[in-house]
Amino acid sequence: MLNTGTMKRFRRHGHESQRDKHKQDLYQFNKTVEHGFPHQPSSLGYSPSLQLMAIGTRSGAIKLYGAPGVEFMGLHDENTAVTQVHFLPNQVELVTLLEDNSLHMWTLRAHNSTSELLEIGRFTLSGPPGAPPSVTRVTAVLAHSSGELLLLGTEGGHVFVVEVPGFRELEENNISMEDVQSRVPEDYVGRRNLECVEALHENPLNPRQVLIGYSRGLMVLWDLDRQRPVQHFLGTQQLESVWWMEDGGNILSSHSDGSYCQWTVTGEDPQTEPEKQETPYGAFPCKAISKVIQLPSKQGPPFLIFSGGMPRASYGDRHCISVIKSKTHEALDFTSRIIDFFIIREGENQTGEPSALVVLVEEELVVVDLQTEGWPVIQTPYLVPLHCSAITCSHHVSSIPLKLWERVQAAGAHQNTHYSTKPWPINGGQNLAPDPPQRDLLLTGTAGVFHTDADPNDNMNQGSEGEWPPFRKVGCFDPYSDDPRLGIQKIHLCKYSGYLTVAGTAGQILVLELNDEAAEQMVEATVVDLLQGQEGFRWKGQARLDVREEPVLFPPGFQPFAMVQCQPPAVVTAITLHSEWKLVAFGTSHGFGLYDYHQRNNILVKCTLNPSDQMALEGPLSRVKSIKKSLRQSFRRIRRSRVSMRKHHTNNAAKLQEINARLEAEALQEMELAPVQRKIEARSSDDSFTGLVRTLYFADTFVSDGTHSTPSLWAGTNGGAVFAFVLRIPPQERRAEDPLSAQAAKEIQLMHRAPVVGLVVLDGKGAPLPEPLEVAHDLARSPEMHGSHHLLVVSEEQLKMFTLPKVSSKSKLKLTAVDGSRVRRVGVAWFGSKTDEQLESSLVVLTNQGELHVISLPSIKMLVHYPCIRKEDVSGIASCVFTKYGQGFYLISPSEFERFSLSTRWVVEARCLVEPPLQMRPKNPSSPVWRDQSDGVATEHRNFNKESGGFESSPNQVMEHALLNDERVLQEIQKSLEGEQMTFLENNLKTTPKAGNVLSNGD
Amino acid sequence: MNKNHRAPSNRTLSAVEVKSKFGAEFRRFSLDRSKPGRFDEFYGLLQHVHRIPNVDLLVGYADVHGDLLPINNDDNYHKAITVAAPLLRLFLQRKEEADYSAFGTDTVTRKKTPAALAAVLLRPDATKKKAPIIISLPKDFRPVSSIIDVDILPETHRRVRLYKHGQEKPLGFYIRDGSSVRVTPQGLEKVPGIFISRMVPGGLAESTGLLAVNDEVLEVNGIEVSGKSLDQVTDMMIANSHNLIITVKPANQRNNVVRNSGGAATSGSSGRSSDSNTSFYGFSIPGSMAMAPSHIIQNYEADEESEDEEDLVLEPDGGAKSLLESGAAARSTASSSMPALPRYESHLELRHANGTVASSSSTGSLNAHTRRNLEEDGTVITL
């Protein structure tokens, strides 16, 4: 008796632990890497010895980049802006200054043959008791070349000397303002108040001498050993920056009136007049030159590079860096604010010829090749400004076949001829991550179009005649859309056939084909009336786009060949492409249609509109937004901008915090006064937008009888309705002539009327049907046509399994009724353990609470769930896409994708090593670390790397951002597609030190 | 649900057989189902066929559950016609002799068969008590709410079930965030809570009188709301809106149900309505069988599971082409003849599910399952 009892218990326990183990084998949650450009960068640093670049952001993140694939990330606990980043010369340490006046020491520590970015110390200057905070407010930092000293200039005009890395204050070495002031000549105008220390610079020849530049214009050459000034330079203009020329004999200073001065270091004291003073864009008042650099060049005159200095009245709003070499003079015109810039020089110690200018602007990183005629731009392998036009949708395609990959790359290369051929100049560190076994594409649709003039190609020859300053547009960030109707809403790419379909805001659907040759063709539009003659409605929304009547020349790449225009031209809300059947289905808030792109005609139109739904009839979705909501939003915006405006005054951190706190308190109070209310009301067929088509799905399944499967189209609407149509498609040989037909077969109205967000048909074995052409390419087993198929309808509230062909409910999972979360995103993914070849399919669901659920198929039971995105981050949740192998992406800022993985088998992680410069550093195999992507084997997912030594095999993930706007701008798509080609974004991984490795499942 | 019901009946014969009983006399005639006409015409017709032109009548009919329900306006007349399957049994009484207590769902539990019903009606006058005060019958017979689980909940809490099913009236209330005070081992603690913030005039919630502004919401269909955001609770309520059960802590604690009712007398509408058997909510009409449970439901989770709404599946009829014909036809014949239709199953299941149906996952054996239930209950279904 006892025996059986224990046996039973034991057995049950054993069973459970087995199931748990199974879950652990298959699922784990990791946030792995970030792709894209850091949101709101605030500072830039570079280490010539490590060849690493550091970018600090306003949210307190610090990101290091070296060779493609070498990437580190750290986050300050303070979450305030990183105002300065300085590498300690010839060390692996770097110092960051935050807006709250704290200094932080970071180091790259090797661990298990990979490096990690770690914070090893923090420090805040403490002044004498009773001193005002300005005394210790750091404004300038000099990391001394000895690697042992940090000189900190402050707002009060003092210079503090601190020993690093331990942050020990060397009080006896401090240079107080009084020391300096007492020695300044009586008649010097700036004598009264030197103001803050604007710049600190070390003598390149004598490290014991530093130049201290004060805001009012005075510069003092100070001897650190003798603790006394060597020479005074009595500038009279507000100082912006100083630059000590390489020869050590000359100093450049830049000023707020747009001038720069050259001073000679003579040792004679004082020097009252500069050697040379120049206002490059002079005559009329100019804006400040915020930074000036001059570097010698073996061939002829030196490079003079400075930012700003534009004529205030006419070009005061431009963001420019001027590069002058002899008679060549260019004002590089950026589309966003310049954060900082630096020059990369050739040679082992980076002391040779200037080779590249690296500019960090607010929205992108631009690298200019200074050694090639015309100073072309070098394409960046990472930090791609994904958001160069706002991202409106994304579409992920796993395991791109090699052929398509190569063709896309070739088309991209073809279009990007204007880029420099120089290799990427920043190549510190080694990327140790194994080559990914598969190539994936992430396509993003954007809100607008690139202005063509933002493209370097077009402007290469512009501006040479007559224009002064000689502007040249660089960079591609341009958030302004010509016409919002061009915005891309939906993308679908068939990786086997190279057919791409994109749908836009004004009801336009384009079908594109990958073509290696340029072609001139006319794209005919088929107009489809989705209202189906419903009368008495007037569309008050946008007009449709005009269709070009004449043939258009399309460059190699994706070329449009068919177009559908929905009437009314409402935003396209769902799209799907079946390349085997050569059909495209599309839906708007009025209904859906089916287009045959082989015969170029429309086969089916179904109006889903509820006749009483005025809202959907009248116009775009934005009209629905309540006044209350928009008011609330605009208040928030104002408040935020007020805050960020104040943020610019770096001196008032304390005040700022106070203001923030007050605003927060106000907001809280406000909330308590007028509590948010929610109406409790059942959904009704009269609700707005019940006819909006949310999802479309093609399936070859048993729709009408249990013995013959037929092609079918399924559509789900916002009002919880599912429509099924049986398609009759002629055999292959008669495909071009015989007409196609579609017949209504089923209509399911879910009683709860929640929006249908996903439709999946499961085969006789309970596995989702494969994608079109997948079986033909032998990449998936053919679906099991014996045994009954099932239809899984995923609505926002529940998942429900129906039998086919006779539709009756079989099982369901009521998500919302249980925990109040609603399904936002759903995808089918394959999971497998690291050791087992066997893959099983599951459903991956993201809820409006930001939680990820894995749900078993076909039993629809919740397996594991992990919190992923903050529930307040609505745009993050909306932007999420899943890959077929249990990974996913979502936007963490307008410009960055976070990548996560739910799979134990497929994890993309950064693994890279940076070694200290003083030690013997193994040379990178080939310095330009352009790893050839396309020589990867065409792998299907089963060929994963099974190296077990801790290396995760990682599918190659390349982010593509494609902008498809109208036929005219299609070349832009290619351009951007190609933009990916060189980006090994997937290599562009970073270690996220705080990311937990394995989150145990909540079960 | 109503739609479900209309669907099969539309397919059946277009004529409705009527068997009308007045005193000891029977009259049989038929009506065109598609054109039933108005109630006053029908009333005239009855007077005509029974040849009692000047007698004021109270008209009642037996519905599918064997309940005696009144016909006194166009709506319930049409209802009676649509649900007649195909026989409509009428019972006429003289108004002055009418026994109002015969109407209602009480009749279901006690006397289930029409025969028993008739027995009530035929009760000898000698035993009849004094006629009750005549009040007009309510126009619309559906329960809108009930208080449930009185015996298992603390007296300070109230579990209210709102019947949204099959009616157009909006649920009609709003909820908000707030804070409430809880007693914990550490003492009093202020915790966030969800409260009813507003009632929509004329809405279901208001009309029940069981919910009020500032009542704290504790559970939604058995799931605690603590720790959930306002939006989550909103979504849960909407997801359950067809059969919403909310447990509240009423702001006004004076109307609470006192369980040992032998003692303290309860007053106020809520106290009375806790017993849905006797309340005026008790009337039930077919088509809203969700309201049929007339006992206190103790395990509504199970009930809720089986209670689930039926999705409406439409398949093309005659117009469909060969591809579809067989399937659709098979289905439509099935739906008109077999009582084991999905919608019927759920119907039966509903009525007898109280706590017995563990889950609906055992779909395969559903038929057998419901049939068994049926037998156990001994209910006779009039079809």
From TrEMBL, chain A:
WD repeat residue intervals: 75-116
Location of the Lethal giant larvae homologue domain: 278-376
Region of interest (Disordered), ranges: 1-22
Cell compartments where the protein resides: Cytoplasm
GO terms classed as biological process: cortical actin cytoskeleton organization; establishment of spindle orientation; exocytosis; Golgi to plasma membrane transport; regulation of establishment or maintenance of cell polarity; regulation of Notch signaling pathway
Similarity field: Belongs to the WD repeat L(2)GL family.
Protein name: LLGL scribble cell polarity complex component 2
Automatic annotation (TrEMBL), chain B:
Domain PB1: 15-95
Domain of life of the native organism: Eukaryota
GO biological process, one term: cell division
Any one annotated GO CC term: nucleus
Broad class of where this protein is predominantly found: other
A Pfam short name: PDZ
Protein name per the record: PDZ domain-containing protein
Protein source organism: Danionella cerebrum
